[in-house]
Specification:
This protein has about 400 residues and is an alpha/beta fold. The chain has a single domain, classed as Histone deacetylase domain (Arginase, Chain A, 3-Layer(aba) Sandwich), CATH 3.40.800.20. It has 12 helices and 8 strands. Helix 1 crosses helix 10 and helix 8 packs parallel to helix 12. It starts with a strand and ends with a helix.
Length: about 400
């Protein structure tokens, strides 16, 4: 087992909770943690407690007025009109007690991961409490209050002076991170997601390429609804290999939303557990090829917290620690412990059955459309290579 990876975790991640009926449920982090412990794949020496992000760290990205508004909201001291102006108190991001502290802990978890990797204490670090990629400078959005990835990237730039490749495989476009660094040539953002035609946040088109000095450093692949494993993986693999070779980062930060799965209730993609085996393999490879192994990974979306998230996020850690050859049955003790609480039947195996869903009638059309999207997304890189060869 590799000793070069750390797992940032605390039961206090559960305090980021809107209400019992809200789809964003951090119990999924505990389910993953317990699955890995039951498996014997995560030991105490690899677990690191998160810290709270300071106001100064949050202000690397977020307006101070917004931070104060979040604090007041969590204490019941913010009027409804003012709250709504900041995206707080909406259906997506309801106000809950101590929301500033809960949110700052998620950001602090990601910063803890950053410091371990960039100070040389670990090659890889995983903080599944993070990945809240929709948060903006002065507004909450899409279940996200503070944007831990954006704060972490700014923190990496200021403290360590590194060039960062941000890779977002959530089914929703990583809009908050993209717009934060849209004019920055030292941050390359790559998001592969379901097209915004039918899905929040409605952005992430191929022609969103950056602006000013940052033009050409933003990449988006919006795949069609009902995209299956083969097409998704072909797009991800082709794009990420070329983008990494173009940008040659000092460190890679991956956002690992797992809501592209067929079971996810909020999206329209048709992926299986297969892509969650392959996503971290390529990230791991690129980290060692370009970044001397420096790889920071965070969580993200994932709303089937029982059947999808624990398996998918466990596979991420297993790849990170070179234990990824696992297959077959899930631990019986884990199933027995959690099945009484689950509203659905827990999966019995690591992998999904071949007949997970009925055949998709538009498969050939979807596959061809996605291939064309990849060509458009990578055209600037390929055109530049052609010019250089001439």
């Amino acid at each position: 087992m590799s000793k070069n990876s750390i797992f940032v975790y605390s039961d206090a991640f559960q305090t980021y909770k809107f209400h019992d009926r809200h789809p964003f449920n951090q119990l999924r982090v505990k389910l993953t943690y317990d699955l890995l412990q039951t498996l014997g794949a995560l030991h105490d020496g690899q677990i690191v407690a998160p810290r709270l992000a300071t106001d100064e760290e949050l202000a690397l990205v977020h307006d101070s007025d917004y931070i104060e508004a979040v604090k007041k909201a969590g204490k019941g001291q913010l009027s409804e009109d003012v709250a709504l102006n900041y995206g707080l108190g909406t259906e997506d991001t309801p106000i809950f007690p101590n929301m500033h502290e809960a949110s700052a802990l998620l950001v602090g978890g990601t910063l803890t991961a950053v410091d371990y990797v960039l100070s040389g204490k670990a090659e890889h670090a995983l903080s599944l409490g993070g990945g809240l990629h929709h948060g903006f400078r002065g507004k909450a959005s899409g279940f996200c209050i503070y944007n831990d990835s954006s704060v972490a990237i700014k923190y990496m730039q200021e403290k360590y002076g590194v060039r960062v490749l941000y890779v977002d495989t959530d089914a929703h476009h990583g809009d908050g991170v993209q717009w934060t660094f849209y004019d920055d040539p030292n941050v390359c953002t790559f998001s592969i997601h379901e097209t915004g035609r039918y899905l929040f946040p409605g952005t992430g088109n191929v022609n969103e390429r950056g602006q000013g000095k940052g033009y050409g450093y933003s990449f988006n692949i919006p795949v069609d609804a009902f995209t299956e494993d083969e097409s998704w993986l072909a797009a991800y693999t082709e794009a990420l290999i070329e983008i990494a070779d173009f940008f040659r980062p000092d460190v890679i930060l991956t956002q690992n939303g797992v809501d592209a799965h067929y079971y996810d209730p909020l999206t329209h993609l048709s992926a299986s557990m297969r892509i969650y085996r392959e996503i971290p393999k390529l990230a791991h490879q690129i980290a060692h090829q370009y970044c001397n192994g420096r790889w920071i990974a965070v969580g993200g979306g994932g709303y089937d917290i029982w059947r999808v998230v624990p398996r998918a996020w466990a596979l991420l850690w297993l790849e990170m620690t070179e234990q990824s050859d696992i297959s077959g049955p899930l631990p019986k003790e884990w199933i027995a412990r959690w099945q009484p609480r689950a509203p659905v039947s827990l999966p019995l195996e690591w992998d999904d059955p071949e007949d997970l869903y009925p055949p998709i009638p538009r498969k050939a059309e979807i596959t061809e459309k996605n291939a064309q999207t990849v060509m458009k997304a990578l055209q600037p890189i390929r055109s530049n290579k052609q010019r250089l060869n001439l």
